[in-house]
Amino acid sequence: MLCLAARDKFAVDRMLQAPYGLDRDKPLFRLPFTIFAVATVFLALGGLVSCICISLLFHFEESTATHCQVPNYLPSISASISQTPERYIWRLCIGLHSAPRFLVAAAYFNFYRRRFAKRCAEWSLSCLNLACALGENLGLLLLTYVSSNETYSVHKNGFIVFITCALIHMAITCRLWHVINKYSLSPEEQTSYLWKKCLFAFNVTACLFAAYFYRWHNMYCEPGIYTFFAFCEYLVVLSNMAFHITAYWDFGTKEVMIATPPEDKRF
Asked: Where are the membrane-spanning stretches (predicted)?
């Protein structure tokens, strides 16, 4: 009788332990990194396009008004995300977009660490690049959750942090990929480097034109000039998003995976 009870207990233990161990060894979630990176950028893109379209359709006068009180035809990004419901759409999209951006920044840092562990200059640039990527994301969160209608100075400083870190991040990334491209025969890495260079050059050009039109508008208050500034601002943000989409080539074979950590099994 005692022997039968012991055998039954052993059988029950095996039934409980076997499926449990097998389930814990399987990933809970798996997604190609290319889809992950592109979807992250499209969250921000969808939010931006939605806010601009809603502002043009329902809040045209408020979103295109400036202190000069002259006709304009496009809202700036700050104006288009300051109205309701635009501000909530933008905050939702950027809130969902920010966490994956931190993960992408960490993925790039690990990528550079493997490449440049024995190269002091490039390793230092990789650390600075990570700091700029984090600063860019934090600046975007700041200007998102503090609108220009609420506290203009905080919103302005958030924008300055965002654009400064973004430009430095793109410049350092191009420098690092210049070094990678010297020793790489991968067509994906060469394509990525080419697009990074082009998008960085385009972004800098758009920034310069945006600054020029903004100054022109403030100095002379001519009709329509602020529209050119707003359009150039769109190009700055869109080229920045496109720059981040180049992760599609950088991590083409990688996956984002959520799994439980392995545990020692004691029987």
From this structure: 33-58, 123-146, 158-177, 198-214, 226-249
CA distances from residue 72 to 62, 68, 69, 224, 229 in whole angstroms, order as listed: 11, 10, 9, 5, 10
Cis peptide leading into residue 75 (ω within 30°): no
Q: Residue 92 CB: number of other CB atoms within 10 A?
A: 14
What are 196-244's pLDDT values in tens digits?
999 999 999 999 999 999 999 999 999 999 999 999 999 999 999 999 9
- Residue partners of 131: CB distance under 8 A and separation at least 6: none
Exposure of 42 by Cβ count < 10 A (0-12 exposed, 13-18 middle, 19+ buried)?
middle
Identify the helix (H) or strand (E) that includes residue 76: none
List the one residue out of 260, 264, 249 whose CA is nearest residue 32.
249
- Report the C-alpha gap between 162 and 141 in whole angstroms: 9
Between the two ends of the chain, the Cα-to-Cα distance in Å is 24
Query: Among residues 193, 157, 187, which one has the least CA distance to residue 173?
Result: 193
Helix (H) or strand (E) holding 266: none
Instruction: State which amino acid sits at residue 23.
Output: D
CB 54 within 8 A of CB 119: no
pTM: 0.85
17-33 per-residue burial string, b: 16 or more CB within 10 A, e: under 16: eeeeeeeeeeeeeeeeb
CB-based burial, 172-188: b 16+ in 10 Å, e otherwise: bbbebbebbbeeeeeee
8 A C-beta contact, residue 170 and residue 205:
no
Rounded CA gap, 153 and 112, in Å?
A: 36
Ramachandran area for residue 27 (φ above 0: left; ψ -120 to 50: alpha; else beta): beta
